[in-house]
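Justification of computing resources. Each target in the renewal requires a structure prediction run like the one illustrated here; the chain below, 140 residues long, is used simply to show the kind of job we budget for.
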Amino acid sequence: MSNELKAQLTLVKGLQFVGAGGSHHSVVLDSDFEGNIPAGNKPMELLLIALGGCTGMDVISILRKKRQVVRYFALEVKGYRREEHPRIFEKIEIKYILKGDNLSEEAIQRAIELSQEKYCSVSAMLKPVAKIETSYEILK
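Resulting structure tokens:
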């Protein structure tokens, strides 16, 4: 397995790019800072989606290894930008929403901690600049 990851982006018009990674699925990126009508995903939103996907996969994987039966799983990720620099997050809130059979609160807390401290690379990149707060809710 190679340690190399690649992405290719091409400028289409204005500040709109089309990009693709190793999966070859294309993504349209558009600026939300230049006042133009958005025609694609905003990079700051994609960063939150990447964070949610990264930590979500970690948490589910850890819970499965702990034999926790999760029937429903979702995340809500909110990012708050710095006033003086809107391209940098000041604070990020992640709320994990779960439903399952006899879910252990201790197992959920530990899975979230492990994801944030050890496994999620997106979280590791964001931690030096943004405070990341986590919470969870177990649905009945």
